[in-house]
Amino acid sequence: MYWAARCRVDGAIAVIALAWCVVFAGTNASRAEEIKNSACMECHGDRTLTTTNAAGREVSLFVDLAKLAGSIHRTNTCASCHFDLTSKHPDDNLPAQPINCAKCHEKQSESYGASVHGLASHRGVLGSATCSDCHDGHTILPPSSPESPLHFSRLAATCGACHEQAAKDVAESVHGRALAAGQRDAPTCTDCHSEHKIEGLKESSPMKISMEVCSKCHASERMNTKYNLPPDRVKTFFESYHGLAAQYGSTLAANCASCHGVHKILPSSDAASTVNPKHLVETCGKCHPGATENFALSKVHVDATANVAGGGVGGQVNWWVRRLYLWLIAGVIGAMLLHNGLLLAKKMAAIYRRRDRAVLRMSLNQRWQHVILGSSFVVLALTGFALKYPDSWAARALGSSEPFRRWTHRVAGVIMLLLGAYHILYVLFTKDGRKLVQDFLPRWKDIRDVADNARYLAGLSPQKAKIGRFGYAEKMEYWAVVWGTIIMGGTGLAIWFKIPVTHFLPRWVVEVAVTIHYYEAILACLAIVVWHFYHVIFDPDIFPFNFACWDGYVSRHWQEEEHPLEKCAPESNSTLAISGPPAAELVSSPEQHLIR
Description:
There is one protein chain. 57% of the residues lie in helices and 2% in strands. By secondary structure, the chain is mainly alpha-helical. It has a domain at 356-572: Transmembrane di-heme cytochromes, Chain C (Fumarate Reductase Cytochrome B subunit). The strands form 2 sheets. A two-stranded antiparallel ribbon has the order 1-2. The protein is elongated and about 115 Å long.
């Protein structure tokens, strides 16, 4: 019953809609029949027919049917665009309204509405440019046609109908001369101001002018090579004071147009150019009152890394000063590093000999596992971020070969996975390994230790938690490494062997693996720097370095301070032995455990 009623309702709606379309189409059809092009041409075929527009300019109302037939609107009728008119026009004294081009050109009209022309029109500014002002009213041709008012050779004249001085300046500029010579690569009005969303650049920021307008051509290797232009103008500008100030948000810093001009841009060799030596004092003085000829002799586009042989005496002196300072910096700082490095080595050796390091914390097997794990981790971090950011210092340090970085990353990953497999065998089939993983298992005491240490660190208790061989900190690190190895290994293999993986799984699985791999790497690196490095380097009790990962031993004092509950005779645990009294306490710390 429901579906029957629903079908009857839908059928009724369809009949009503069809009837409406027929009536509407019939109305339009009858209107189209009433207003024929021939009727319009009775008046608009007169070449002398004119009117005065809202800006007070006299405009022609003559329509050339021959040109209309050659335009892209040749299939349109008068009534299809002027749909506000009726057959009573012009006797009804109702003037034709501006054409609503959005009826067919919605996206272009939307862009125009956000332009300086469209916004001015919305505010009611008389004479604001409309679609027909730029495209012509009836003879609408594609911009590629030489007869189109938007053809690159005629665009300045089209815009010049309203912007006379700007068009004159462009015609005299190096850009205008190139356009007149037929060079299409030369910028036109729309290349700088955009096409439909015309932008007024007078109030734009220095960054927008320099980066989004001028750089489109002057940072192009193709353009610079083709027309023998200086290849470094954009780069050296952004390295200058003006460019750096613009990058840091200054709205007052000079941009390209501040020195070279806006429309009348001329080469420095031209006597009328604003950057000609005769005009530099005046140009610089616009921002630097009191500028002299000596001040104006400074260069904006200076490449400090190049031998400025053509830069005169100042350029040569600057080049040699830079070279001398580079050698001076390398020599002085290098000598300082050598001196302090040797001093640090001496003091570390003295600390190593002075400390009562009698407790064996890590066996030789465990230390080798730690070294391999740490080395592979560092290589993975460097090569991984170099692959993610090929322009970074890490990528430059590893050379320009992407395959080298990629395969080094993969080899280090395989080494880490093989070490993980070995560690599984170690904890399964060796006594020390089984004891190690047993001591790493979480217990209820770990939760109490967290609470006790929280009170101690907050100053609410004078006693910190009493820790055994491994506390909650070491246990979190150990199992985080296990978790991270599984996650990074699994996602890394999925990324490496993406083709076989996508035989069974959708491609988005690989994309998710890339995301997990990247953010897990960030988490792991930050955890190492923030947590592990504190316990093995920056902790005052072991600074400047914990030697347990080197020879396995820690001091009795550190053992008693950090792990007071680990008390056993040397013979009770082959992994931990004491060179000292039998009752010595065996200790463990975040920085000394096996897996980091």
